[in-house]
Amino acid sequence: MEQVYRQKGYPVQTLSREQDFPKSGIELVILTRKEDAGMAAQLSSVYGVPVILSVPGLKPDVPPEGCAEMLPYPPHPAYLEKWAKREERALDAPKEPSSALNPAGVSANDLMEQMIRQKASKQTFSLRGQTVPFVEPLRPLAKRATILTITGVKGGVGKSTFSILLARNLHQKGQRTVLVDLDNMGNLARLLRVDPIVSTDRFEVLSNTLNDAELEQNLIRTGYGFWVIPKGQRPMGLSADGTRRLMYLLSRYADTVILDTHPSRMVCTVEAMREADVVLGVTGTDRSTWAEIRDFFSLTEKPVHLVLSRTREKPGVLHEISQILESQTGYPVLGYVPEDDKLFEEVQAGEMLMGSPAIETAMKQIRLKLWREDAQKTETEKEGMRTWRFGRSKGTRT
Ligand SMILES: Nc1ncnc2c1ncn2[C@@H]1O[C@H](COP(=O)(O)OP(=O)(O)O)[C@@H](O)[C@H]1O
Ligand SMILES: [Mg+2]
After folding, report:
1. According to the model, what pLDDT value does residue 132 have?
2. In a domain, 304, yes or no
3. Residue 52: CB within 6 Å of ligand 1?
4. In terms of domains, do 159 and 220 share one?
5. Ligand 1: which of 344, 356, 361, 366 to mutate, most ligand atoms within 8 Å of CB?
6. Range of the domain at 254
7. Is there a domain that residue 136 lies in?
8. Per-residue pLDDT tens over the stretch 62-95
9. CobQ/CobB/MinD/ParA nucleotide binding domain: which residues (predicted)?
10. More confident call, 87 vs 339
11. Distance in Å, CA 159 to ligand 1 centroid
12. Do 86 and 114 form a contact (C-beta atoms < 8 A)?
């Protein structure tokens, strides 16, 4: 939204706290969260400007007290013209006496606007001593999150459960982690017991306009501490563009993004596999389900690692099974997640997923393998295995 309005010459600032409001120069306040509607009357009287409530998915309706309008976010730019007082003010604004610094005698207000606009072309500006990013779409990123794509060729093998356990583990280790439900049939919102008010669809509809501050407001914090973006309503999932946009925006925000996908060649699954730093293929130990694995993962050039999920076998047997799996597919096995009755019961009861200590140990081993020595090792032994280095330089997009 900001980009569109800036092109039209309006300085737009995204502020998440009331304390951050500039003292002057505000013409219109747009509240983007329903809970903030109660502030409208006060804001409107303090600043003497109209306040609009504009929330994603909101139906235009009679506005609550203090709000001039109530409409879905983002408000159409043409709509804002209605409220903008630029022309009027330019006429009214007294000219300053011309001086060496201000030869044209531009009014103080206009000078301030010019300044904001100049600053908007930079990446950040300073607001009361705090550095605030201006968001410009699809520029090279200074920071890029690690993207882990969880996928596979079969449903019901434990991909979503594994995604949650991994997100929880990374969060506990201090990583800012966002889990995204890219599965159009997914149920992460239910599993994580959050209200799916925001969905991946937002990244489709607002592909050029969703900005960081809003993103941050709209990510849903789970009881585990990490964040989640529930699935959208689209029967075919996100488009390739929407998927890329999603990862681009989240990249600025998170240390690690975990993408839980639908096990098919759906556009967003394939895109997620291509954008990933590492693809984690989750599979069971049932060999009859392995036939498709090699073909499926040849869709990506990114390093693929397999995770054996819901295992009931003893360690020695598991080792043998993974050797067969590796030689059949050409992809290394990163670790195991044991079948855990406690975990299963927690899911059935709609409780938080904790699992027994064996689950914790398994997840720790997987994390260590992802981020430590093994991950640094260049894998060249087997044909068809990808050469990779997990810690490759950030800030590059391929
Ligand atoms: N490690 C595990 N131990 C016990 N049950 C599990 C485990 N992983 C998954 N499950 C159960 O298996 C079912 C499918 O899991 P889910 O994660 O939704 O699979 P997917 O995402 O691959 O379709 C769920 O009922 C879940 O509780
Ligand atoms: Mg799933």
Report:
1. 44
2. yes
3. no
4. yes
5. 344
6. 146-376
7. no
8. 778 888 777 777 776 656 666 655 444 444 455 6
9. 148-350
10. 339
11. 7
12. no
DSSP for 211-268, written as a single string: -HHHHHHHSEEPTTSSEEE---S-TT---HHHHHHHHHHHHHH-SEEEEE--SS--HH
Considering the domain architecture, whether residues 270 and 169 belong to the same structural domain is answered as yes
Q: Which two tokens stand for residue 208?
A: 């050029």
Contact 197, 229 (CB under 8 A): no
Pocket flag, ligand 1, residue 158 (CB < 6 Å): yes
Protein residue with its CA nearest to atom 2 in ligand 1: 339
Q: Is the pLDDT of residue 7 over 90?
A: no
Predicted model pTM: 0.64
Pocket of ligand 1, candidates 181, 259, 309, 347: which has the most ligand atoms within 8 Å of its Cβ, to mutate?
A: 347
How far, in Å, from the CA of 179 to the mean position of ligand 2?
A: 12
Pairing type for strands 278-283 and 146-151 reads parallel
Residue type, 391: G
- Residue given tokens 């295992």 in the structure block: 311
Of all ligands present, the nearest one to the C-alpha of 337 is: 1
Q: How far is CA 364 from CA 161, 173, 203, 326, in A?
A: 15, 10, 32, 22
The three-state (H, E, C) secondary structure of 337-363, written as one string: EECCHHHHHHHHHCCCCCCCHHHHHHH
